[in-house]
Design a protein that fits this description.
The chain is an all-alpha fold and 179 residues long. It has 5 helices and no strands. The protein starts with 6 loop residues before the first helix and ends in a 13-residue tail after the last helix.
Amino acid sequence: FPSHDTEDVIKMAWVEYVECMLPPLWLSTVAIISVAPILTEILLGKNFIESGGFIVWGALSEFGRVATAAVGMASHAKMKTIHLVIPNLVGALFTLIVLVTMIDNFGAIGVGVTLVIASFISFSAGTLITKRYLGMMPPLNIVVKSFIYSVGLAIVFFFVTSVVDHKESALGRSYRDWE
């Protein structure tokens, strides 16, 4: 986003950037979440199958972090770096304030939930700041399409993981035998 371009060129470039970033980001997040249980069992074994939740929390919080950075590109283009600091500061403060309570009440799951909520608070703050101060908003149609496509992808991955769970692998033996 060259800074010498006109306002409309910067807006169009930013919208195209967000349109290119959000769908594959969300689809890859759904893919990771969909295969988390089987991936955990393959890599860690049956004794650690419950650790798959950490993959889910990590994928969701990473989605929020990268989406926040994508929205923040508008601030980069307009050289308004304070607008980059505020969303991340809000998310960090939320994490610091809520984390202790969540750990006390929910243990390790509380950490994951807190980080996911904080990343989405940062994304929401970044989106609001971008809309209010820079006059730009992520295109809603792309966000909706991403969620619709992800439902189909999730169904495919859940089907594949359920089939793999009961069938032999291409190597001729069950992945459960690899332990």
